[in-house]
From TrEMBL:
Species this chain originates from: Shimia sagamensis
Keyword set, alphabetical order: Aminotransferase, Pyridoxal phosphate, Transferase
Protein name, UniProt field: Aminotransferase
Reactions performed catalytically: L-aspartate + 2-oxoglutarate = oxaloacetate + L-glutamate
Family the entry assigns: Belongs to the class-I pyridoxal-phosphate-dependent aminotransferase family.
Keyword Manganese: no
Cofactor needs: pyridoxal 5'-phosphate
A Pfam family: Aminotran_1_2
Known EC number: 2.6.1.-
Source species, domain of life: Bacteria
Coiled coil: none
Length: 391
């Protein structure tokens, strides 16, 4: 009996990049007090008013099968949000509600890639990207970026791979893991490559409410890009609803029609009471989103103050998202070695840059997901540890 090559090859035959995280969790299970700066999980949970709306809906009976594409109210709420914030006219027919952003990423690649197609993505990348592409039977092709350019992709480097034949390009801004926000020039370059080489663009925009410098620009809003762009969105980061598993894809109507068929044969939709809670959350507008985002901007400023007083640890410009990317190459260690050393010595868990691709070698990603006091203490300890190693 053999398992399929597709399922056994999701991680490419190597590590899935989560080794340090699993190590930290084993320590915690043994009673060790570990400061976790690993995953993007808010330290403040879903707002009680959202949970109350969810409870009211569930107790009101919305616990059966919901419509597979999403409830009419949820699809219209997302469409209205995108229309208002991007200027692109969007109707409910352009929206599919999914069980979280990860499900949307998978579905988007199913829609745009046939088995064996080359699917491009930017390195550094969120850890699941290449596995998601392999999972749909496509070939993941990373586009390397450079720390000296704040890990922003260059159109000419994307074009090199596009000329070899590709079906899709996946981008993410604000970016996880680097915290970089792509400006208009960068996105215009990406859009031009997509049009010249007939690429589908998959735009992961789950951090669109977490922008500290610059502005969030959806590439779907650029000239002639709505017809070839699939936007992945989620309530996880914007509304601290990570465990509720609710996201969406915005795409041309024809694409959504086919994605509804996919959802019918896979997820069969999202629970109605969760969608009702999400509709309620979206109706609270930007005020609630700003409240949820505020701790990360505040901690970004704490980090900048600490890092300004030393020369060992470098900060990649932290323009958005709930992470900072730190350059620890001055210690002489790889990101993975430094992360293990920090965990073993000080019980502080971070993610190695190598978990997110080759471009981030010698870096670590720090999630700003503990309270201010603990975050400040942990980051100062991290800097002190790096200085000790460098000396």
């Amino acid at each position: 009996m053999k398992l399929s090559q597709r399922i056994t090859n999701i991680t490419g035959g190597g590590s899935d990049g989560w080794d340090v995280f699993y190590k930290a969790r084993r320590m915690i299970a043994k009673g060790v007090d570990v400061t976790e700066l690993t995953i993007g999980e808010h330290d403040i949970r879903t707002d009680p008013v959202i949970l109350a709306a969810m409870d009211q809906s569930a107790r009101g009976g919305h616990t059966g099968y919901a419509m597979v594409p999403g409830t009419q109210e949820m699809r219209e709420a997302v469409a209205a949000r995108l229309t208002e914030r991007t200027g692109v006219p969007t109707s409910y027919e352009n929206i599919l509600i999914t069980p979280g952003g990860q499900s949307a990423l998978f579905a988007a690649h199913v829609a745009t890639c046939s088995p064996g197609d080359r699917a491009l993505y930017i390195d550094p990348y969120y850890a699941t990207y290449p596995g998601t592409i392999r999972g749909v039977g496509a070939e993941p092709v990373p586009i390397r970026t450079h720390a000296a350019n704040a890990f922003k992709p260059k159109a000419e480097e994307i074009a090199v791979e596009a000329t070899k034949g590709a079906a899709s390009l996946l981008v993410n801004t604000p970016n996880n893991p680097t915290g970089t926000v792509y400006g208009r020039d960068t996105l215009n370059g990406i859009a031009q490559v997509c049009k010249e080489h007939d690429l589908w663009l998959i735009s992961d925009e789950v951090y669109d409410t977490q922008v500290w410098e610059g502005e969030h620009i959806s590439p779907r809003s650029l000239p002639d890009m709505a017809e070839r762009t699939l936007v992945v969105g989620s309530m996880s980061k914007s509304h601290a609803m990570t465990g509720s598993r609710i996201g969406w894809i915005a795409a041309p109507k024809e694409v959504i029609t086919h994605l509804i068929n996919l959802a019918t044969h896979t997820t069969y939709g999202v629970p109605g009471f969760i969608q009702d809670a999400a509709v309620f959350a979206l109706a609270q507008g930007e005020e609630l989103e700003a409240e949820i985002a505020a701790p990360f901007e505040r901690r970004r400023d704490i980090a900048k103050d600490i890092l300004a007083n030393q020369n060992t640890v470098g900060l990649v410009p932290a323009q958005g998202a709930m992470y900072i990317m730190l350059d620890v190459r001055a210690t002489g260690l790889s990101g993975e070695a430094f992360a293990n050393s920090l965990l073993d010595t000080h019980n502080i868990a971070t993610m190695p840059g190598e978990s997110f691709g080759h471009s981030a070698h010698g870096h670590i990603r720090v999630a700003m997901t503990v309270d201010d006091k603990r975050f400040k203490s942990a980051l100062q300890t991290l800097v002190d540890h790096a200085e000790h190693l460098a000396a």
